[in-house]
Amino acid sequence: MIRICATEDVPKGTVISADVDGLQVAVVHGTDGEFYAVHDECSHASVALSEGEVEGCTLECWLHGSRFDLRTGEPSGLPATEPVPVYAVEVRDGDIYLPVGADGRPTPSNGVTR
């Protein structure tokens, strides 16, 4: 497990970008109150998802408006058609952690790699 940040660093309804051994991860505090982590790059246009808007358990790409389900990585509308990698999140003692593999990088829980 690797500590990403304190929960207070990600207010409800916001997203931050974190570098985990060279991999950019968007850490999201959904408006549903849950914490999520996804690869910080839209599968359609290669722009940072961390600059998008959070609604419930979805994150909208700021450039073309595709929304991604933060639980599955699946896009819910065009122009994106491919899912983004999703990472398991563990909240412990007020901190957010991601499990990492032997290479020191988070392993996608939805099997999607980039």
UniProtKB/TrEMBL annotation:
This is Non-heme iron oxygenase ferredoxin subunit. PANTHER family: 3-PHENYLPROPIONATE_CINNAMIC ACID DIOXYGENASE FERREDOXIN SUBUNIT, FERREDOXIN-RELATED. Keywords: 2Fe-2S, Iron, Iron-sulfur, Metal-binding. The lineage of its organism: Bacteria, Bacillati, Actinomycetota, Actinomycetes, Micromonosporales. InterPro entries: Rieske_2Fe-2S, Rieske_2Fe-2S_sf. It comes from Micromonospora antibiotica. The keyword Signal does not apply. CDD domains: Rieske_RO_ferredoxin (cd03528). PROSITE patterns: RIESKE. Residues 2-98 form the Rieske domain. The keyword Transmembrane does not apply. Pfam families: Rieske.
